[in-house]
Amino acid sequence: MGKQPLKKKEIKAFDLKGFKSKITSAPVADKPMEWIIMPKAFQDALHIPGIPAGYMSGVRGWSDTGKSTIKNCLIAAAQKQGILPIIFETEGNFDFKYAIDCGMDATPVMGIDEETGEEIVTDYDGNFILFNNATICDYCGDMDYSTGTKKSTKRTVAVIEDIAYIINDLLDKQESGELPMPLLFVWDSVGSIGSWKSYTSKAGNNMFDAGALSVAFNNIINARIPGSRSQTSEYTNTFFVVNKIWLDSMNSVGGAASIENKGGKSFFYAMRLLIHVGGVAKAGTKRLKATYKGDDYQYGVVSKIAIAKNQLPTPFNVTYSGTICCVHNGLCSEDELNDYKKEQIPEIMERMAAALGKESLAKADTNDVKFEEEDEID
User: Fold this and answer.
1) Cis peptide before 25, with omega less than 30 degrees from 0?
2) 224: number of CA atoms within 13 Å, CB side?
3) Based on C-alpha coordinates, what's the Rg of the chain?
4) Contact 209, 217 (CB under 8 A)
5) 31-280+303-326, which class in CATH?
6) Residue 338 region, left (φ>0) first, then alpha (ψ -120 to 50), else beta?
7) Where are the domains of the chain?
């Protein structure tokens, strides 16, 4: 018996537009795509203007592959565009001199060492807010995340939940008009501190930490940051993380080990742009070396750079790869490296002198400087 033709169901005339206006009047379209514009070498390698505003993005890689250089250039770029960087430095090694060389607005505040009487740098001022482990604990170290209440004493150890607490608090202050500017949250790095549960149990536990990242940041990465792209949001806010990595060889079934982000999968899934620098099994970089009469100084690295994940809107959902040179004042391409060396030889010599403790190097004949690129390591 043959199939009977389906009868077309008649749809009753209905004012759908009017019905939708009763439900909500908020527009569903986002603002036009916005970017925190990165240096030309970054753009040329990845074929995107920079880091997308209103999204969660990140960079990952092994040590000494260019992550800090990208972070510093992003902070400097945000400041130039009137965006306030909120920096969470939980590794305890924020290099202000390097960040300033990369263009960051940060002015040393001088003071006197009470013991020696010498003038020293006591702080840095500028268009940024920086939280380290001590200032994080000063801000919210009295929080008990198991009960949601405050204790009478403060911790001296920062935990994952503190970062989420501060981000939410500052976004609240932005909404209330107390902090009237777009914000860039930068965390360096995911995987460097544990969770509240790990802290209270007095034993680190990767499952506890992964769970804390998922729960504590759920509203931030799924609602508050992407929600700032809405046309109803006055400011567009961005979240950028530097992510530690590890190699998973247990689940490779005889194949090559896979790179995994520390902290579990929740941040990986939330990122709309993930950049990988360096190699897979090792750093995979070329060391840029300056030599003067037997003294060697590494003045930078040449690193691979690739888009490991891209879920940005069309036409920006590209997955290019290339190379970048990470030098003392930021990023340049390999094509620009010769010009950099010619222009920066005096600065390189001063840095070599400081690093080796030989003041005479700073005044040496720069024509005798030899530049080399060490073989790639991977």
Assistant:
1) no
2) 21
3) 25
4) no
5) alpha beta
6) alpha
7) 31-280+303-326
